[in-house]
# Entry
Amino acid sequence: MTRSLPTARFSLVCLAAAAVSFPIAIIGLAKLLLLLCALIVLVCQLLRHGERSPLLPGAASPMMLLALAYLAAGALWNTGSTEEALQALVKHGKLILIPVVLSLLRSRREALIALAFFGGAQVFLLASTWLHYAGVPIAWITSKEQGLCDTCSYAIFSSYLDQSIMSAVLAAVAWHCRSYLPGRWRTLLAPTIALLALGCVFLIFQGRTAYLIAVVLIALTIAWELPRRLQLGAALLVLALLAALLATSNQVRQRVLEVDYGIQGYQQSGKPSSSAGTRIFLWLGSLRLIETSPLHGTGTGSWKKEFNELTRSSADQTPTQGTLAAVYPNPHQEFLLWGVELGLPGIALLCAVLLALYRDSRQLETPARRAMQSILAALTLACLFNCALYDALIGDFFCIALALMAALRTQSTPLEATAPAPPTSA
# Structure
């Protein structure tokens, strides 16, 4: 059993890396096996007196455990039910994946192989989306959006929101990590994956959050890759291409204009009758809840109950508003969710988690550092418009992606021995 443990450990990390591209049931099984394996490895390390790997590698790992401990403590003063508190803890608990993966990957070679499983599964998802878009029958589609609308139905396993954000992140990871590919594949494969992934974002899916994330990641890439004298011209070219896309793509133009229409509609009627209006309504209500309990919040898992009571007691309540919390069990904003349930210290704690991940990224070599910071930028933007860490699947995707990048930290095997150096900019 002792000899087979390293093989099982590494295999389960690779399984978890690939699983985040597939349905939530596969992700759940992979996480369960990974956590059981981590527990066994931890017990074996504690019983052994020989050389041990770090239990909490990196700056982010202790911060993750601190955040989870505070979330667990928040369940003690939860104003909702015990069941809601436990469900919220399970959803927040995916943060543990980051220290678990970091502790289970013991070398850069293992991290690169796990990253290959992650990337390969994402490319499979990307190819399935384009085949489905081209009208090719895809037997493994499980998305609940099928048949709802033309632009939603191209999601394969999740929703257009999740998959569009994942596609934007894949484009950045494929480009920045191209030096890890074999030499004869690097020149063609990485740009092709990046372009196809961006095509999914702007041409197939309708996620406006993904539009913003893709634009920001493109801007970061320009800032990193090009000499300063060329950055302005490249930025202007990207803006021109985006303007052309906005002018020629009815889908992109309509989705962008819907934001303005939704805000105006909410200002005029006070009713959350659109996506933008709903978010404003949820955010304003969440801010009022934070104002009433700024120091300790209302407890982990209490947002739905507190928001329901707030809307029922509002003088300007409408039938639509009174049922919103039943439809939207979170405020569609990660920072506000932590603020309502844990108070202002909760928001500070979430910011500390993100800063710890950024600090870990600065310890990496250039390709992994840029990729990890791109993922972190995408996560931060996604958290401003959705509960990206709290939600299933997309939260698991971000945690695994960040952990795999952080695992590429300098260890016994130098980078030059495992991957060619990235090409220099002209």
